[in-house]
Amino acid sequence: MSALRVLAVIPARGGSKGVPGKNIKPLGPYPLIAWTIRAAMGARSLSRVVVSTDDERIAQVAREHHAEVPFMRPLALATDSAKSMPVMQHALETIEKLDRTAAPFDAVMMLQPTTPFRTSADIDAAVALLTETNADSVISVVDVGGHHPARMKYLEGNRLVDPVFCEAIENQPRQELRPMYLRNGAIYLTRRATLRSGSFKGQDCRAWVMPEERSVNIDTARDFQHAELLLKEQPA
User: Fold this and answer.
1) Cβ 194 vs Cβ 137: under 8 Å
2) Using CA atoms, how far apart are residues 90 and 92, in angstroms rounded to an integer?
């Protein structure tokens, strides 16, 4: 089976409000975006690693860590309301237009810099899973743990109301509940045709399960502090 041509795209706009300058804010020894770049550059399964950004400061940091920044993202795709899908489609179309002599990519992997602790091994495993299964996509997930939906309630005023999917008995032990998983934001690997059709998942989506400690997703200042704490707890 021939190797897939996989384009890795790291989307990093400059207008973060929750954590100003988030993508280049230092996290331990590296800027936040550099953690994702280093994992991508260390993976054996990626054909190219590019950063899509509207911010020249982010672009400069990305280049310093050996990622490509072959274009600047249009401002219309860098607003607070901009969705990931058109950003990824734009990156794929732009890269292929800039290099018309290269064969089309088989798949595109979105690597969000806000999930910094994925590893090169996670990336390679996701590509291997897509190759082996011939699926439309692979998305990384984490076990929901104690926040299982069967334990959740609706509120009607201040009255607790059980959903139809609630636990079979009150206070049912988590170990008895069917495991459920949440997308952790680390890896979205999608076949080219599926992405071009407007879907990250397609009809056949497989899961790459990651542990909680590699699934930290940084959206707020508190998330950043949690990531810094995890780094300090790692053995030297």
Assistant:
1) yes
2) 6
Q: What is the pLDDT of residues 97-123, one digit of tens each?
A: 998 877 899 999 999 999 999 999 999
CATH 3.90.550.10 fits 6-142+184-229, yes or no: yes
Q: Helix (H, G, I), strand (E, B), or coil: what is residue 95?
A: helix
Whole-angstrom distance, CA of residue 107 vs CA of residue 78: 23
The domain limits of the chain are 6-142+184-229, 145-179
Nearest partner of 215 among 225, 200, 199, 230, judged by Cα: 230
Instruction: Give the Cα separation of 115 and 215 in Å (integer).
Output: 7
pLDDT tens digits, residue range 31-65? 999 999 999 999 999 999 999 999 999 999 999 99
Backbone angles phi, psi at 8, to 5 degrees: -95, 130
Cβ count within 10 A of residue 225? 11
CA dist 31 to 11, 168, 178, Å?
Answer: 15, 46, 38
